[in-house]
């Protein structure tokens, strides 16, 4: 056992597994009849047959914490934020926040466009905003300084440059500067890949926008990482193509006055 090793210093950095708050989850229908045709476990709302393992998780965390050689038990894995916004999660969230977050909680809002989130089978963005509120309130009540690490994806099928700009403006307004973002890459056997190749929603058959050129994919990424000085020229190019240069000033706080003057001149911005 890890706690009995001579080189163990007392901290377990992650007991979360692939998704921390899905530990011990199960489906009552599958247990009874073994088949579910719908498989819409979490969207638009949590299925009543999905039983979360929060009690089992807390029991496990407490048992680990009770081992004398263990000083800290942290969860470094990501959480499904949509399963932390309802009353049934409050005891779990509070205990996780109190004892198991070393300073950062990882969640994946992915995008802020409900259109894109719908194609990903993710909840509405308002659910993420509710989570942020609840998490901050919980942390405040515990007098803990903890932060949210957000994961976003760029150029997912359905996301146009306009939608990427919407996300960038949301992030800039809240001074969120994502370091870790994922460029959508089609991978075998996924719905998103089917969307990428067919440019259609596989369920409705409706046409969807797919960013396929390398340049546009770079611009979408640059929008999300608007605060990186190296991305400013791509942002200017993207804003010009959208005829939206007037919003460039919203990203301005992240760059120096000198850079700003140079880019403004370069883009012939006439604000
Ligand atoms: S949608 Fe409900 S019944 Fe179907 S697999 Fe998910 S939890 Fe089970």
Compact overview of the structure:
The chain has 271 residues and is α/β, with parallel strands linked by helices.
Explain the layout of strands and helices.
Layout: E1 11-12, E2 26-27, H1 28-33, E3 50-51, H2 54-65, E4 72-73, E5 78-79, H3 90-100, E6 104-110, H4 114-119, H5 125-141, E7 147-154, H6 161-173, E8 181-183, H7 191-198, H8 214-224, H9 232-242, H10 257-266
Parallel strand pairs: 1-4, 5-6, 6-7, 7-8
Antiparallel strand pairs: 2-3
The chain binds iron/sulfur cluster (SF4).
Iron/sulfur cluster is lined by residues 27, 29-30, 36, 38-41, 47, 49-50.
Please give a structural write-up:
This protein starts with 10 loop residues before the first strand and ends in a 5-residue tail after the last helix. It has helices spanning 28-33, 54-65, 90-100, 114-119, 125-141, 161-173, 191-198, 214-224, 232-242, 257-266, and strands at residues 11-12, 26-27, 50-51, 72-73, 78-79, 104-110, 147-154, 181-183. The chain has a four-stranded parallel β-sheet with strand order 5-6-7-8. A two-stranded parallel sheet has the order 1-4. The protein has a two-stranded antiparallel sheet with strand order 2-3. Mean pLDDT is 90; it is low at 266-271. The relative contact order is 0.09. Strand 7 (147-154), helix 6 (161-173) and strand 8 form a beta-alpha-beta unit. It is of the alpha/beta class. It is globular. The longest helix is centred in the middle third of the chain and has 17 residues, at 125-141. Iron/sulfur cluster (SF4) binds at residues 27, 29-30, 36, 38-41, 47, 49-50.
């Amino acid at each position: 056992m890890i706690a009995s090793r001579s080189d163990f210093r007392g901290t377990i950095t992650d007991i979360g597994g692939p998704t921390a708050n899905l530990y011990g989850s199960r489906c009552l229908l599958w247990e009874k009849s073994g088949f579910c045709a719908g498989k819409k476990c979490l969207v638009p709302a949590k299925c009543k047959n999905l039983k979360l393992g929060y009690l089992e998780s807390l029991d496990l965390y407490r048992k680990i914490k009770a081992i004398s050689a263990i000083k800290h038990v942290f969860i470094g894995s990501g959480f499904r934020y949509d399963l932390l916004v309802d009353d049934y999660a409050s005891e779990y969230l509070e205990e996780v926040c109190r004892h198991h977050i070393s300073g950062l909680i990882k969640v994946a809002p992915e995008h802020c466009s409900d259109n894109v989130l719908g194609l990903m089978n993710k909840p509405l963005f308002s659910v993420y905003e509710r989570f942020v509120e609840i998490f901050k309130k919980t942390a405040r009540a515990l007098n803990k300084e903890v932060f949210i690490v957000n994961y976003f994806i760029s150029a997912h099928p359905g996301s146009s440059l306009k939608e990427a700009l919407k996300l960038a403006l949301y992030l800039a307004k809240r001074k969120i500067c994502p370091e870790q973002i994922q460029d959508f890459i089609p991978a075998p056997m996924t719905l998103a890949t089917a969307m990428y190749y067919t440019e259609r929603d596989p369920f409705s058959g409706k046409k969807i926008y797919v960013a396929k050129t390398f340049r546009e994919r770079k611009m979408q990424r640059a929008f999300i990482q608007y605060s990186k000085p190296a991305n400013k020229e791509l942002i200017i190019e993207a804003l010009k193509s959208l005829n939206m240069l007037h919003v460039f000033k919203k990203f301005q706080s992240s760059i120096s006055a000198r850079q700003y003057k140079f880019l403004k001149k370069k883009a012939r911005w006439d604000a």
